[in-house]
Amino acid sequence: xxxxxxxxxxxxxxxxxxxxxxxxxxxxxxxxxxxxxxxxxxxxxxxxxxxxxxxxxxxxxxxxxxxxxxxxxxxxxxxxxxxxxxxxxxxxxxxxxxxxxxxxxxxxxxxxxxxxxxxxxxxxxxxxxxxxxxxxxxxxxxxxxxxxxxxxxxxxxxxxxxxxxxxxxxxxxxxxxxxxxxxxxxxxxxxxxxxxxxxxxxxxxxxxxxxxxxxxxxxxxxxxxxxxxxxxxxxxxxxxxxxxxx
Amino acid sequence: xxxxxxxxxxxxxxxxxxxxxxxxxxxxxxxxxxxxxxxxxxxxxxxxxxxxxxxxxxxxxxxxxxxxxxxxxxxxxxxxxxxxxxxxxxxxxxxxxxxxxxxxxxxxxxxxxxxxxxxxxxxxxxxxxxxxxxxxxxxxxxxxxxxxxxxxxxxxxxxxxxxxxxxxxxxxxxxxxxxxxxxxxxxxxxxxxxxxxxxxxxxxxxxxxxxxxxxxxxxxxxxxxxxxxxxxxxxxxxxxxxxxxxxxxxxxxxxxxxxxxxxxxxxxx
Lengths: 246, 269
Description:
Chain A is mostly helical. Chain A has helices at about 10-30, 35-40, 45-65, 70-90, 95-105, 110-140, 150-185, 185-210, 235-245. Chain A is built from 9 helices and no strands. Chain B has helices spanning about 55-65, 65-70, 75-100, 105-135, 145-175, 180-195, 200-205, 215-230, 250-269. The N and C termini of chain B lie far apart (about 75 Å).
């Protein structure tokens, strides 16, 4: 019996890739370490850019929900900036992450560490994206930026975002620790490496998010893609100034 | 079959899978690492009562959600999902009639419509996060299974609400105070949701989840979303010049204002 040969058209190729991507994503979400490690170890074609696709999709959806309270324009801006923030943080930290992994005794290479960080960011982005409908609904049903209760709504939404981001971060870090423990073979080394990466990524990510603000949109300030002087000052200087003022 | 076979002309595609889960030869595999074989298919945990599979679907909804969820994988899975959706909408609408009986007039049709539509919207808004959190629990599910759990939970809540309807009706006819009746309705709804939580426990057991706390977290998100939805779709209890208020308000702020308004009115009287 002659096997049925699938058509080799562009449309079918795209469909095949999407189907393959989706199956991989489901396995990674269900904590199948073999599938995750196939991506972290690096392969050809789809394994390289699949985490980027999910990172951009999830982060864009969540970014749109984040900016939706202030203005639809800001929703569009943050949908672009949030994936940029995650990718920029991974790239800026790539060399430092790889070197410190080696320094702490891990056997993973520079490429593997970069892919592990991107995978974790992609997982966090998918979790964030899944909460985008909830936060978008809250953003559109709470008092808007033009009314007297705007400050309360701004703070309540801010807390909700912090809670969701914390959840996504915790899930991603836990999974990343599991992947590294499986890849390296030593759970204690993996824990030290992940803790170091977390510290580095938080420090750098906070600064890059400061450069790329606004995110949430303070009532009264104009809606722009970036502030007038995005590289004027640092996140930590502003925190220090706020502490000094209080 | 988990993944489709790559056509021969696509030489750049991923290499075919090895059923033992061993990585392909071109990948860099440290000599010390042991590739993980795919987890063998675990035997399904036994039902609490094997006769549960033979019960009618409605009985399974209340007594054995595990057996009802098993039907979703069967030949009539789509029909089961449709039936669950209908039960969910109908049960919420029945309770909405009781809620609307407090004010009468337009609320006879507005309250059931808003409660049924609101429940459906909350399910739709929270479905993506449920899917992700169920997956993160380690359960080997598809979107269809998660939809089944959500619809079963919703249908179970709706049936329990409909069961409480006569009780709520008695109180609706005996009281004129929204700030007393609204918490009563919320309490009835919350008890029904809590009693339906076992659907998720059954689903996670059926699909071999390793952690259940994440779904508990989702339930918190779902409850908050539903509470906000009742404020967004107001008025549901009581009357107003328009069918939908339109003003954006946090549900806690709305409750506070309602209680304060009725307290002032009571002091004047």
